[in-house]
Amino acid sequence: MKTKLIAPSLLSADFGNLQRDIEMLNNSQADWLHIDVMDGRFVPNISFGFPVMKTVQQHAKKFVDVHLMIVEPEKYVDEFISHGADLISIHYEACTHLHRTIHHIQSKGVKAGVVLNPSTPVLLLEDIIADVDLVLLMSVNPGFGGQKFIENTYKKIAETKDLILSNNSTALIEIDGGVNLDNASKLFEAGADVLVAGNAVFSTENPERTIELLKV
């Protein structure tokens, strides 16, 4: 995969005009579509499930990046795959049998990522880093959009990059939470490969232009 990717989060899209917003992203310089799935148990909020995924599947022409903020994700990965997920990322904190679930996702021809909450140390990924396609570092506490970026994320990017290199892993590093025009270039310079942006894209008058600027 190429790096320096922008993945707008549909969590911040207009759900009354979801097809319109997906088509806007199809025509933009966005690389991926990021889907935040919340269950109200692992995180204190509920977002959306398979009916919305079906709409995404019908209209999206870009790589579909699904982030499962749910307990027992292994119960649902097959259905997300059947609804068009190209990559599924699951939380280290939410999956007891992480290795098994990562390999099950990959056995279906879909890429698999692992996610860390802000307080979870990178070193816990040592035994799985060679197996995953992506590490998603949460740069806010998961569950709500529009939160302030946690500055310790830069340190975690460096630690993750070191772990990837020392284990000959090909995993990409994705950052989710508080990404905006003020920190995007700094995050790429620090070693991030993929940036998730929600409010920073959809709250602007010209989302397509904002996506262009995030990639600079």
UniProtKB/TrEMBL annotation:
It is an enzyme of class 5 (isomerase). This is Ribulose-phosphate 3-epimerase. The keyword Chloroplast does not apply. InterPro entries: Aldolase_TIM, Ribul_P_3_epim, Ribul_P_3_epim-like, RibuloseP-bd_barrel. Catalyzes the reversible epimerization of D-ribulose 5-phosphate to D-xylulose 5-phosphate. The gene is rpe. The keyword Coiled coil does not apply. One of its GO terms (molecular function) is D-ribulose-phosphate 3-epimerase activity. It comes from Chryseobacterium formosus.
